[in-house]
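User: tokens in, sequence out, please.
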């Protein structure tokens, strides 16, 4: 683990926010490390699209969705703030959180973040749950294509989620309030 003094942290954040990643790539600063992610493949987008479609049509609360929205969340001890870009961010429509939001917005008011595994599945499975829990994101939904499973992380405390429910793809996953429906994953396969 690298420890940053305030000056080097400020220089790192200045460098990061000025970074111009290659076309289509997204750059994230997670636990003090730069993570570059290439554009997703069609299977990734298929799973994300099926998830978001159900969020719009079946959720008990109207949801606003943003794909690739920058979030600035509390960092790990000794690291700068995390700057993450989930595959999807959902917030109650009534809150209007996305209207006028900065490129890197705080996580307050967000109901759920969604990740679909890509080129670095270990980041989505291990690092991002810590990051989202530290940031107080109540629900983290992970579609893990490599293990053919879907996991809902809930009840964040410090840098971990105290609850997780994993179902094989093809089986429904019950989502709590404010969503309050069973997410159908049959077409994810």
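Assistant: Sequence out:
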């Amino acid at each position: 683990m690298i420890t940053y003094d305030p000056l080097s942290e400020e220089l790192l954040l200045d460098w990061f926010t000025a970074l111009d990643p290659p076309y289509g790539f997204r750059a994230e600063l997670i636990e003090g490390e730069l993570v570059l992610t290439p554009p997703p493949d069609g299977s990734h987008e298929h799973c994300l699209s099926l998830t978001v479609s159900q969020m719009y049509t079946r959720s008990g609360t109207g949801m606003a969705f943003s794909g690739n929205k920058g979030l600035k969340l509390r960092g790990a001890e000794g690291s700068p703030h995390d700057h993450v870009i989930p595959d999807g961010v959902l917030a109650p429509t009534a809150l209007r959180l996305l209207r006028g939001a900065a490129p890197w917005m705080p996580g307050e008011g967000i109901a759920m973040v969604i990740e679909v595994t890509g080129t670095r599945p270990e980041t989505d499975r291990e690092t991002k749950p810590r990051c989202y829990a530290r940031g107080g994101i109540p629900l983290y939904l992970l579609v893990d294509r490599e293990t053919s499973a879907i996991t809902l992380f809930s009840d964040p405390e410090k840098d971990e989620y105290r609850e997780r429910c994993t179902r094989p793809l093809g089986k429904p996953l019950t989502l709590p309030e404010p969503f309050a429906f069973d997410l159908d994953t049959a077409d994810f396969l």
